[in-house]
Amino acid sequence: MSVVVLDASAALAWCFDEERTPQTEALLRRVEAGGALVPSHWPVEVANALLVAERRQRLKAPAVDGLLELIASLPISLDGRAATNLSGSLLTLARERSLTVYDAAYVELAQRTDLPLATLDRAMARAARDIGVPLALEP
């Protein structure tokens, strides 16, 4: 049972001291206790962001490896349905709300599953609010 749809931006805040807040720490505890649901591209998005941080020397390689292990240990479930719905509501949502298809996948997943969205992305949060999706984290 998942308690939130978890955007990569929210999860990545756990990885950087300057981005960690009491809200993001509470979200981590919430995910640890109840799980999260994410679109199928989420692991690649998170891994890529951490690799970029490594290349920019914000993190060292062992830290990236450890963070990926920590994230992999969380009760996070992948939803593959958005990838099969590209010509339907996902693309429409991206067009109507000026989102990338990647970001629209989070909003669509939260709407479809009636779960709150945890994101630090303002555009994604605005789109979610506009269509009645509650937020689990305010950017």
TrEMBL record:
InterPro entries named among the record's database cross-references: PIN-like_dom_sf, PIN_dom, PIN_Pae0151-like, TypeII_TA_RNase_PINc/VapC, VapC_family
* Record key words, sorted: Hydrolase, Magnesium, Metal-binding, Nuclease, Toxin, Toxin-antitoxin system
Which GO terms label this protein's molecular function in UniProt?
hydrolase activity; magnesium ion binding; RNA nuclease activity; toxin activity
Q: Which cofactor does it need?
A: Mg(2+)
Q: Which residues cross the membrane?
A: none
Q: Which residues form the PIN domain?
A: 4-129
Q: Which Pfam families match?
A: PIN
Q: Which family does it belong to?
A: Belongs to the PINc/VapC protein family.
Q: What HAMAP family is this protein classified in?
A: VapC_Nob1
Under which name does UniProt file this protein? Ribonuclease VapC
Encoding gene per record: vapC
